[in-house]
Amino acid sequence: MPVGLQRFFQDDTLSTRRKDLNRIRFVSESLFRRMMAGEMLDAWLFPVEEEAEPDTGMAIQGGVFWLTLDECNRIPTAFRRDRKTKKAIPRRALRYRKIFAGAQVPRVTVDRVTSASEIFHTGRVTFARGCGLWFGVAWRKPQATVDERGLTYRAALNRVLTMLGDEGIGGERSVGYGAFSYEEEESTLALDDPEPGGLILLLSRYHPQPAELPAVLGGDGTAYALTAVGGWLRTWDGASERRRRLWLVNEGSIVKTVSAGILGDVADLRPTYDQADKTFPHPVWRYGLSLGAALREVSRG
Question: Which tens digits make up the pLDDT trace of 24-68?
Fold first, then answer.
């Protein structure tokens, strides 16, 4: 969902549907393309009354997901049927269905010396049957080789995804969390590249280069939010350590292009130490290149 809601909705909608708009986290491709084309989206909102049958737009998971009525047929069949009767449920009832859900799972740790136990909780996210995550790749030179062995960038990405699927991503990998399988879909999502000085809506997080500031975040039409990203790192011959935190511009932000080509950079977040003779053995990269789509001027007709 874009950060600058006033760009896509009339003042009346912003005042009367503010809670509904703030609850939306994800928009469908059809609605996204309407945003990019400069269309106001008031008429595509789902009904105010939860029991009302939708006629243009509809909500899922209490309004976290927003899509058009035409896109409802692309939802997995199992998601649109009653779990007991296996019959199709009314479209308005999809508002209560959950695509994903978070939960706190109790765990126990045992002290190695005293054998004393202590309970703690871990967050876990599960997805409905037939649902999951997806991501796109903006290929530049997929057939270019990575090394002297002839491995291409496309093949290297598939190797990395296979390895991550086996090892898992996120925390608690030792108990099986974060493992996944993936499918590659040969489809194209065409996005208009912005002209220098134009606006883009970010689909990725973005770490501006010093030369891009402050112009990229200032001026008419920009709207952005920041997030601090940290986490842990692993290396082949040492214990896990904290990586340095980095402030990124959030996805959904609207920023201004200041030059042709890709904005942002890839930051090295390897740890630093007080001891002058202690260094970390390799770079630790955080991806901060921007991926977005050009925004046309909104017509308020």
Answer: 999 999 999 999 998 999 999 999 998 888 889 999 999 999 999
Residue 73 forms part of a structural domain:
yes
Alpha-carbon gap, residue 129 to 126, rounded angstroms: 9
Q: Judge if 11 and 44 occupy the same domain.
A: yes
246 near 267, Cβ under 8 Å?
A: yes
Residue 211: Cβ within 10 Å count: 10
- In a domain, residue 152? The reply is yes
Within a 10 A sphere around the Cβ of 262, how many other Cβ atoms?
Answer: 14
pTM, two decimal places:
0.86
Residue 299 scores a pLDDT above 70: no
Which pLDDT tens digit goes with each residue over 226-236?
999 998 887 87
- Report whether pLDDT(22) > 80: yes
Whether residues 221 and 286 fall in one domain: yes
Contact by Cβ (8 Å): 87, 70 = no
| Alpha carbons 126 and 164: distance in angstroms, whole number | 18
Q: What angle do CA 204, 25, 258 make, to 5 degrees?
A: 30
C-alpha–C-alpha distance, residues 192 and 295, integer Å: 9
Say if 105 falls within a structural domain.
yes
Contact 232, 241 (CB under 8 A): yes
